[in-house]
Amino acid sequence: MIMNKYISIIFFIVIFIRFDAMAKDKSAFDFSFENAFNDEKIELSEYKNKVVMIVNTASECGFTNQYKNMENLWQQYKEKDFVIIAVPSNDFGKQEPGDIKKICEFVNTQYGVTFPVTEKNVVKGKDAHPFYEWANSKAGMMGSPKWNFHKYIIDKNGNFVEWYTSSTKPDSEKVKKKIDELLKGS
To answer: Which CATH architecture does the domain made up of 2-184 adopt?
Structure first.
């Protein structure tokens, strides 16, 4: 009985170490998303030498007005080797119930979104999109999405750098300071 308990503990430790080692070998550039606006993939490797912000979004959330902040940030930085990507998700409060056509229409008409938007994805748990599995392992339990409009920052080399909670506006001074720092290569 005690031996089985130790074997189980060792098994979980080995699995955790293996998963952690696999995550360390990857970068954001190893992942892609389906583009919501067309049939092309959004290959994160296309953003080498750019700072990337990836935000899980929802159309029926109290933070949905952050699409406006995201578009403002995009307009301010898109010529400076920066990209922002919205990842619609229905994971939190079922606040993204529509299909992708409805989501695209909403973000275009309500917020004039011109930055990349992915198909709907799962961002938490065992069914999370592979990028989110990787990023969540980098961010840890505290830095993984707890709600819609959680933000991840990736540097020019595809490394996970920072996370920001839903309540942090994407164009806040602290976020822009981090983006500026990364764009300068600090």
So the answer is: 3-Layer(aba) Sandwich (3.40)
